[in-house]
């Protein structure tokens, strides 16, 4: 069990990639702190972990609220004594419209969750990890963090920002025993992708044609990459934005 007794905090782990990561790390022996704005979904993730003999607790948090992020990270340390891995996964997509038609409230919300929320989580996690002299952070960006995505300006801007923050923090903390990386998934079968499919008829077939391997990503594809970035086997890797895209970026 490669993550035995490691303390892992995962935001947005009530569904999708976050839930998949929580289940995976728990199966590998980690003590998982499940966090989500949706209490019902978050507690269901904990229930599934415990049903398989794993160890987990739930702490509700809106990552766009700094006080709630503080309570999350401090709660993890209070419960389990340390913070070894932080996976900053919580995020949202926003409406699919052209830039000039973007509503200001939608912009503010997407940036608050996807960009500022990741900053809040990094700030608090790094504070604890620096005390310990060790730690690993994986931020969930997107292929939209590496390229443009028409009709998704706030989302694209926020995911570019996640990569910039990842690289900056990686440089700052490399000598302190802390690694910071990001993953950049292509369209992955999660509730967020379902919402995108509902926005325009036939968009699923159009998007599929952009992926050379001709399938959408699965949660397990992303989770396996996250786990590798948190494992000692990748101890020489920091500041990377890893595309997980079925060849799209190539």
The N- and C-terminal alpha carbons lie at a distance of 34 Å
User: In total, how many beta strands?
Assistant: 7
Radius of gyration: 17 Å
Q: Helicity range of the residues?
A: 40-55%
Largest sheet: 7 strands, parallel
Number of helices: 8
User: Which oligomeric state applies?
Assistant: single chain
Shape from CA axes?
globular
CATH architecture: 3-Layer(aba) Sandwich
Q: What fraction of the residues are assigned to beta strands by DSSP?
A: 5-15%
Number of domains: 1
Looking at CATH, the homologous superfamily is NAD(P)-binding Rossmann-like Domain
Mean pLDDT: 95
Question: What class, by secondary structure content?
Answer: alpha/beta
Low-confidence stretches: none
Give the class-level CATH name: Alpha Beta
Sequence of strands across the biggest β-sheet: 3-2-1-4-5-6-7
Following the backbone from N to C, one meets helices and strands in this order, namely: EHEHEHEHEHEHHHE
Summarize the structure.
The protein has 250 residues and is an alpha/beta fold. It has helices at 16-27, 39-51, 66-80, 104-132, 153-173, 191-199, 203-208, 219-230; strands at 7-11, 31-35, 55-58, 85-88, 135-140, 178-185, 241-244.
Describe what this molecule looks like in 3D.
By secondary structure, the protein is of the alpha/beta class. The chain has one domain: Rossmann fold, CATH 3.40.50. Helix content is 47%, strand content 14%. It contains 8 helices and 7 strands. Strands 3-2-1-4-5-6-7 form a 7-stranded parallel beta sheet, sandwiched between helices. β5, α5 and β6 form a beta-alpha-beta unit. α4 runs parallel beside α5. The longest helix is centred in the middle third of the chain and has 29 residues. The model has no long low-confidence stretch (mean pLDDT 95).
């Amino acid at each position: 069990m490669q993550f035995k007794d490691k303390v892992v905090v995962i935001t947005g782990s009530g569904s999708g990639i976050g839930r998949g990561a929580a289940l995976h790390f728990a199966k590998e022996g980690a003590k998982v702190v499940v966090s989500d704005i949706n209490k019902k979904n978050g507690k269901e993730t904990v229930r599934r972990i415990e049903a398989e003999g794993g160890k987990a607790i739930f702490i509700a948090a809106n990552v766009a609220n700094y006080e709630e992020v503080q309570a999350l990270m401090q709660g993890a340390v209070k419960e389990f004594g340390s913070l070894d891995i932080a996976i900053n996964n919580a995020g949202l997509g926003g409406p699919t419209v052209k830039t000039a038609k973007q509503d200001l409230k939608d912009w503010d919300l997407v940036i608050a969750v996807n960009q500022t929320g990741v900053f809040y989580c990094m700030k608090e996690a790094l504070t604890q990890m620096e005390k310990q002299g060790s730690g690993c952070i994986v931020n969930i960006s997107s292929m939209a963090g590496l390229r443009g995505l028409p009709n998704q300006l706030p989302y694209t801007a926020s995911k570019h920002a996640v990569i910039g923050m990842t690289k900056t923090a990686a440089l700052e903390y490399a000598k302190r025993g802390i690694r910071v990386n990001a993953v950049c998934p292509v369209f992955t079968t999660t509730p967020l992708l379902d919402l995108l499919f509902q926005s325009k008829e036939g968009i699923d077939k159009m998007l599929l044609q952009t992926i050379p391997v001709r399938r959408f990503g699965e949660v397990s594809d992303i989770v396996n990459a996250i786990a590798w970035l948190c494992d000692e086997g990748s101890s020489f890797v920091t500041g990377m934005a890893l595309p997980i895209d079925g060849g799209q970026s190539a």
